[in-house]
Design goal:
11 helices, mainly alpha, two-stranded antiparallel sheet, 2 strands, about 70% helix
Length: about 190
């Protein structure tokens, strides 16, 4: 019996990643199955394993891509508040990546590409706090960075989960975030 499935795909890796992101966006990472993704891509059930080895490898690739996109999104932000706005924008534009990136148990933490991408994103995150005047960072710049990260991540997570409907309403979430961030961080730094 011959199969009508293609064993060669123009860009199987990208096709599987795209299908996986669609599944994660609609059903969450727990719904991922390499067999289902192969079916969606129109290839043999074993084909995705050539690129990702297993489900954890696929999720690691998604997290790596997410951190790279995230670092790009944060790069060259003019100040801490706008870095936070870009954080929220990234989460809303890449919700599937965002879900996977911040669930370390889904990925291979020691994967060299993931480690490098996370480091690059971390440098971009820290750049927002390091750009504040020394007096505005407080005595502990790491703590100031944690506060800024917590604000942006918390806002983005609440926004994606639909828990800010009343607070945001029909206003632009980025403008709402700017206002919220202004309550804690002004031009001189944390209050």
């Amino acid at each position: 019996m011959t199969s009508t499935r293609a064993y060669h795909h123009g860009d199987l890796r990208r096709a599987v990643l795209t299908a996986a992101l669609d599944v994660i966006r609609t059903e969450g990472p727990g719904a991922l199955s390499l067999r289902d993704l192969a079916r969606r891509a129109g290839v043999s059930h074993a084909a995705p394993a050539h690129h990702f080895k297993d489900r954890t490898g696929l999720l690691t690739a998604i997290a790596t891509e997410g951190y790279e996109l995230f670092a790009d999104a944060l790069a060259d932000a003019p100040d801490l508040r706008e870095r936070g706005v870009r954080y929220v924008r990234f989460a809303t534009e890449h919700p599937a990546h965002f879900q996977v990136m911040f669930q370390p148990e889904l990925c291979r933490a020691d994967d060299p590409e993931l480690v490098a991408a996370k480091l690059r994103a971390s440098v971009e995150l820290r750049a927002g706090v390091s750009g504040l005047p020394a007096a505005g960072r407080g005595e502990d710049p790491v703590l100031a960075g944690t506060a800024a990260w917590s604000l942006a991540h918390g806002f983005a997570t609440l926004l994606l989960s639909g828990n800010l409907g009343g607070a945001v309403g029909d206003r632009d979430p980025e403008e709402v975030f700017r206002s919220v961030a202004g309550l804690l961080f002004d031009a001189e730094g944390p209050h």
